[in-house]
Amino acid sequence: GVVEVCHHPSPFPLPAQVWGRDSDMKEKKVCEFVEGDCVGELEFINNHKCVADVKAKGNVRTGKMHRHHFEMCMGPIVDILKRQADTGEVYEYYRQVCIILAPH
Predict the structure, then answer these.
(1) β-bridge mates for residue 77, sequence order
(2) pTM check: above 0.70
(3) What is the Cα–Cα distance from 81 to 11, expressed in whole angstroms?
(4) DSSP state string for 65-92
């Protein structure tokens, strides 16, 4: 599901790190998210499995959203989320993996 990063308790924002794999299947850091960021929404939008892992750096509180609730809450802004994924630097790894996994 979609997860919002909420650090608890923390006097400063600790990131949640996103980890993917390189061509040799070795783990590599892709990007970081901070408090208030959401992860996992593209799997719902594009209807596929996760392409990376998210690891918290410190104590965090998370929330989980199922597909049905995501569609109810986020349906009106799905086009905006898609545009961000198509152009945002933080989504570069995601775009590369999706090209590799796309049916040929």
Answers:
(1) none
(2) no
(3) 30
(4) E-HHHHHHHHGGGHHHHHHHHHH-GGGH
Using CA atoms, how far apart are residues 87 and 10, in angstroms rounded to an integer? 31
Find the radius of gyration of the CA atoms of the chain: 14
Separation between Cα atoms, residue 31 and residue 35, nearest integer Å: 14
In which residue are the tokens 């006097």 written? 11
How far, in Å, CA of 27 to CA of 38, rounded?
A: 22
Report the alpha-carbon distance of residue 100 to residue 95 in Å, rounded.
Answer: 9
Q: Which two tokens stand for residue 8?
A: 């608890």
Structure tokens at 104: 């040929």
From residue 97, give the alpha-carbon distance in Å to each of 2, 14, 51, 61, 93. 19, 26, 7, 28, 6
Query: What's the pLDDT tens digit per position in 50-95?
Result: 888 888 887 777 777 888 888 888 778 888 888 888 888 888 888 8
